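Example record

The entry below shows one chain as it appears in the dataset: sequence first, then structure tokens.
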Amino acid sequence: MIHITRTIALDEKELEEIFVRASGPGGQNVNKVSTAVQLKFNAAASPSLPDEVRARLITLAGARASGDGVITITAQRFRLQSRNRADAQEKLVELIRAASHKPKPRKATRPSRAAKERRLDSKKQRGDIKRGRSSRLDLS
């Protein structure tokens, strides 16, 4: 079990790992050993996720999520397969943690009359400065 929050835990059987050859550092080893990890997680069919977290997770995943709700995370930062595997799982855990936080609803506000006046005054001052520059150029 992979614990994400107090209420959410994933079973490792829900994750599918595919090992592929990585680009980048590794010397001659990079051409022989498949060290990069593609971690696939079917968020749409996961029984471990509440519905609202599932929806936010697929939205947060963006291009990493396919149309049918499968999230693919690639990790190839390290030369070792085991470290890349742990890195991919950590990326998934962080993504699910971010999706588990309910966003605070925005309350519409309006600027005060004084704030509007301050903004207009600063715009007038800036315009006066620019107007003053053009008149100096005409005199010379």
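Notes for this example: Strands lie at 2-3, 9-10, 15-20, 36-42, 70-75. The radius of gyration is 26 Å.
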